[in-house]
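Much of what follows relies on a compact textual record of a protein's fold. Each token is a code from a learned vocabulary of local backbone shapes. The record below shows the convention in full.
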Amino acid sequence: MKRLLFLVFALVLVTACGAVVGCGGGGGGVADEIQNQQGQPQVEEQQSTSTSDESSGGPGDIPVYPGADRIAKVDTEDDSLSVTRTIEQLIYYTDDSAEEVAVFYRDKMKDNGWDETAWAEMQEGYIGSYEKGQYTTATVSITPDVNGKTAITIIWAYPED
């Protein structure tokens, strides 16, 4: 059952990531609107900003691929559980291959204390699911882009303080 839910989630995520990356064009922007069931999220567009930690835009203790450029950040809230969680979606581009990026995330997420709950290699890239504690989760999607770049999408959900 858990694997089936993951595969359904992965399919939805890959479809959504393809739509967001496809709308970005060559200028480093994203679609003007990204909506979800909880309402209007906050969208922060970026112009090629290399990041490496939280102080420069990275998601907490989730590593940012070295030299990757953050092109978008979307913040929403989820109150469907017994605790309200903030959900951040960050999209990065790199010139490195999807395979190189996948190896990096499989190693570094574990090094940072994340438990890998699922990993899938798909025809169009990779997707990994991670958790830390009861309500903190992360999904990393790595897909080749039509412009020869690799798109990295990180979805990080964590309880509000």
About this structure: The chain has two helices and seven strands. The beta strands are 42-50, 69-78, 85-94, 115-122, 125-132, 136-144, 150-159. Residues 1-57 have pLDDT under 50 and may be disordered.
